[in-house]
Write a structure and sequence with these properties.
Shape: globular
Helix content: 55-70%
Largest sheet: 2 strands, antiparallel
Length: 572
């Protein structure tokens, strides 16, 4: 093994890689997004497009990126030596990760704050008799009047709607939320303290790169499964649990004719597995060169999607109990996004015997799910810098510290009273379309410019196994079509953002779209820059920058053997 490869580091075992991938792919979205999407899009019927998209798009993309990282032994920027003209896609990935990881960390701080605030004889969101409650606070006591008031909430103006104790606890006490994104307010100091704690934990875990992350994931990637199992057993034993589960899985086959259902399934698979973010490529780049990527690329996505489905049973069994206790229909209490994790589910937990115990388990699980994703995204940024500037590897700890500190400074804007509005804005616009475009660029680069058969030849040399035609057809035809479908439907169905009943002003929406365009513009900008710097006619410049340069295994011996393998197979 060459000295540069040794300096970069590697996983101590295949188990560390698989656990890291699972921790990365299985995140908060499995708990707060998939169950809501499933019930909203036809229940059990939604599993048809969901699983179809898994096998047509999710697994092939995962296999493609794992092979890309493992074969080259580099991160998401230098890997575009495959097609230098498209190197801007790698820069786009770094920028997206930098922005998203900064604001995402504040979400990780929420569970810490919930645990801190819940350290008492009673959960602070069990009733309306607290300093942060308003006259609009309404306890879910199961009386007809309370049920009717909450059922009519959607007909009222946001300022007149009744709020549950958990809703007011989250927005008034945890967030100290302002009237809108136009009024950012001051810093919420207890939230900032928890944000600092989260950053310190993450830095300590990634301080030595894969050497430290590989050890931490043995706990952070496995313990959430234990907690999910415990919550599932508790949930299904509650009265009303079966009503919630029935509501979750009861198929509505007519929804399969709705294009948006198929779009939601494709988008959920795409964002759940995480292609296009650089994390998969980066984690795979630390693998041993002969690792069987095909096994990994099938196992991890299936475990990820199975976890999403299982999390739905955990969530809806408790929501069914909440419906039983309050008299509210399951459809009324079921929500998605942060509202499910920090309002609805805590409200339901507060109705259980020994609620402090269940609340502790739930928020510890959310924290671990969050930090696992952060490990990979931040490490992808740092590794990309190290690969472009290898001399910086000697100062990796300081670069990691500096990166985390700068990202912390950016995250402070989301720890203000208007921070949740800003967080939702970035989440809504900044990453979704950009990441899909990166994947389209990636699949075109491999399938049509470098050549899918050349890529398959490289993979077969690496894993010493045949690559079936299924993968070839997927990468060259099926994936480009599905990714284009996801890209267009994401734009078409991208409705104007609201949060907590508050609509965003035009300037904020323009800011959101601007952040999206700012990251995507690196792709054409770098392409234009490379064409200008090249010599010859325009056609010669294009051809020159479409040809792979310094492409091949990172290890010098493997690169030599690979080149010999190509020469032997190209002889007439």
């Amino acid at each position: 093994m060459s000295s540069s490869v040794k300096a970069r580091g590697s996983w101590a075992s295949k188990t560390e890689f698989i656990l890291s991938c699972m921790g990365y792919a299985i995140g908060l979205g499995n708990v707060w997004r998939f169950p809501y999407l499933c019930y909203r899009n036809g229940g059990g019927a939604f599993l048809v497009p969901y699983l179809l998209m898994l096998f047509l798009c999710g697994i092939p993309l995962f296999f493609l990126e794992v092979c890309l990282g493992q074969f080259t032994g580099t991160g998401c920027v230098t890997v575009f030596k495959l097609v230098p003209l498209l190197k801007g896609a790698g820069i786009t990935i770094v920028i997206i990760n930098f922005i998203c990881s900064s604001y995402y960390n504040v979400i990780i701080a929420y569970p810490i704050l919930f645990l801190w605030k819940s350290a008492g004889a009673q959960l602070p969101w069990e009733n309306c008799r607290n300093a942060w409650n308003t006259p609009r606070c309404l306890e879910l006591n199961g009386t007809g009047g309370a049920v009717q008031l909450l059922m009519n909430n959607s007909l009222l103006e946001p300022s007149q709607r009744m709020r549950t104790p958990a809703d007011e606890f989250f927005h008034n006490e945890i967030l100290h939320i302002s009237d809108g994104i136009g009024t950012p307010g001051g810093i919420v100091w207890h939230l900032l303290v928890c944000d600092v704690i989260a950053w310190v934990v993450i830095y300590c875990c990634i301080i030595n790169g894969v050497q430290s992350v590989g050890k931490v994931v043995y706990f952070t990637a496995t313990f959430p499964f234990v907690i999910l199992a415990v919550l599932f057993v508790r949930g299904i034993t509650l009265p009303g649990a079966m009503d919630g589960i029935r509501f979750y899985i009861m198929p509505n086959w007519s929804e399969l004719t709705n294009l948006k259902v198929w779009a939601d399934a494709a988008v959920q698979i795409f964002f759940s597995l995480g292609p296009g973010w650089g994390g998969i490529v980066n984690m795979a780049s630390y693998n041993k060169f002969r690792n069987n990527t095909k096994f990994d690329a099938v196992l991890i996505p299936i475990v990820n999607c199975s976890t999403s489905i299982f999390a739905g049973f955990v969530v809806f069994s408790v929501l069914g109990y909440m419906s039983h206790q309050t008299g509210l229909p399951v459809s009324t209490v079921a929500t998605g996004g942060p509202g499910l994790a920090f309002v609805t589910y805590p409200e339901a937990i507060g109705m259980l015997p020994f609620p402090q115990f269940w609340a502790c388990l739930f928020f510890v699980m959310l924290f671990l799910l969050g930090v696992d994703s952060q490990f990979v995204q931040i490490e992808a940024i740092i590794s990309s810098v190290m690969d472009v500037y290898p001399r910086c590897r000697k100062r990796k700890r300081w670069i990691t510290l500096g990166t985390c500190f700068i990202m912390f400074l950016l995250s402070i804007s989301c720890a203000t009273q208007g921070g949740m509005y800003l967080l939702q804005l970035f989440d809504w616009y900044s990453s979704s379309i950009s990441v899909i475009l990166v994947c389209i660029v990636e699949i075109v680069a491999i399938g049509w410019i470098y050549g899918v058969h050349n890529y398959v030849r490289d993979i077969e040399y690496m894993i010493e196994r045949p690559v079936e035609k299924y993968w070839i057809v997927s990468w060259k035809f099926i994936n480009p079509v599905i990714l284009t479908f996801i890209f267009l439907t994401t734009i078409i169905y991208n409705t104007e953002i609201t949060y907590n009943g508050v609509s965003y002003p035009r300037w904020a929406i323009a800011l959101g779209w601007g952040s999206c365009l700012a990251s995507m513009l690196w792709i054409p900008s770098v392409a234009v820059y490379k064409l200008i710097r090249s010599k010859g006619s325009f056609l010669e410049r294009v051809k020159h920058n479409l040809k792979a340069k310094d492409w091949g295994p990172a290890d010098e011996l493997e690169r030599t053997l690979w080149k010999s393998h190509i020469e032997m197979n190209c002889r007439p």
